[in-house]
């Protein structure tokens, strides 16, 4: 009896030791994430993910190590999104239009002239409707950590002047190739040409394209002011982007690290947005000094011309949902 009791006690001790060791190993496990963006090291996006890296590593006591890459060093944004969707420990900052090619509801954030200002975009992002969209997106293998990278108004930066809606016609404009952006450019009168951002400069230099639709940060930091002459302030949408990672990768993180990652992603977006607003004003003045002419134009014809795209892309019901959310927020 004493011998059997000893064996039983020994078994319990071994079991408890094993459980304790397993828990300790989980606490001490090292997780890794590689984040890459297309823009350069001076860009607000990159400074945002640098803040994310530092805060996450500090708060997790380096249990989660984050490597950051700029200027397309890791891979292109579409490639990183694809890698993340199949479980790779990578992430990126993707604009709403690219993600909208995977889940069309996200097109709303990059639809031309749908929102009056950034406040309306934030109302949608904080709504239960948008939360539902991001939760559904997990089924496609992607986790939206934050959708609050507000990087600036998109305008038309061109070789020839655009002073009114008629002047857009005949211009070949570089886009990211997403369906909603191409449709918007076509409705505004341009001929969209989807190409990687890194090809925009030589494309303008060689006359392959006549301009780009872009925000000040992208234009200035890619030195496009050297190969354009004019920027028409069409303000056709405000660039809103998300920090996305693999849902599979995120799910295997301990719960405390999941919380930290989510909280710091939101803070990184806020930081990048503040920097973007500050630098956009500085960049406009710098480009004016370089000789770039800025033009304030009547955008009402563009607003009217883009309305049919929602019917054509099957987005009318989604637009109504967004308008309902904004109406509810406006009545409170």
Automatic annotation (TrEMBL):
Keyword annotations: Signal
PROSITE patterns: PROKAR_LIPOPROTEIN (PS51257)
Record InterPro entries: DctP_fam (IPR018389), TRAP_DctP_sf (IPR038404)
Matching Pfam families: DctP
Signal peptide start-end: 1-23
Keyword Cell cycle: no
Source organism of the structure: Shouchella xiaoxiensis
Protein name per Swiss-Prot or TrEMBL: TRAP-type C4-dicarboxylate transport system substrate-binding protein
């Amino acid at each position: 009896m004493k011998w059997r009791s000893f064996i039983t006690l020994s078994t319990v001790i071994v079991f408890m030791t094993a459980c304790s060791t397993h828990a300790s190993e989980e606490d001490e496990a090292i997780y890794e994430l590689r984040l890459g963006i297309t823009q350069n090291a001076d860009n607000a996006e990159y400074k945002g993910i640098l803040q994310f890296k530092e805060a996450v590593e500090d708060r997790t006591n380096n249990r989660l190590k984050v490597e950051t890459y700029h200027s397309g060093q890791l891979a292109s944004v579409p490639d990183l999104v694809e890698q993340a969707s199949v479980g790779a420990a990578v992430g990126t900052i993707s604009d709403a239009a690219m993600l909208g090619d995977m889940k069309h509801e996200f097109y709303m954030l990059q639809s031309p002239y749908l929102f009056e200002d950034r406040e309306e975009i934030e109302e949608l992002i904080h709504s239960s409707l948008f939360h539902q969209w991001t939760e559904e997106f997990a089924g496609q293998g992607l986790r939206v950590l934050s959708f609050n990278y507000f990087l600036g108004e998109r305008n038309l930066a061109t070789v020839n002047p655009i002073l009114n809606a008629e002047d857009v016609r005949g211009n070949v404009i570089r886009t990211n190739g997403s369906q909603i952006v191409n449709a918007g450019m076509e409705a505004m009168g341009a001929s969209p040409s989807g190409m990687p951002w890194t090809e925009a400069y030589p494309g303008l230099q060689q006359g392959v394209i006549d301009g780009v639709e872009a925000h000040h940060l992208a234009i200035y930091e890619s030195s496009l002011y050297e190969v354009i002459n004019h920027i028409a302030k069409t303000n056709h949408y405000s660039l809103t982007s998300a920090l996305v990672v693999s849902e599979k990768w995120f799910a295997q993180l301990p719960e405390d690290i999941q919380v930290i990652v989510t909280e710091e992603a939101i803070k990184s977006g806020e930081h990048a947005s503040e920097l973007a607003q500050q630098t956009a004003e500085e960049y406009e003045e710098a480009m004016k000094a370089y000789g770039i002419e800025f033009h304030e134009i009547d955008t009402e014809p563009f607003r009217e011309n883009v309305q049919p795209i929602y019917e054509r892309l099957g987005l009318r019901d989604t637009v109504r949902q967004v308008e309902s959310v904004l109406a509810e927020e406006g009545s409170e």
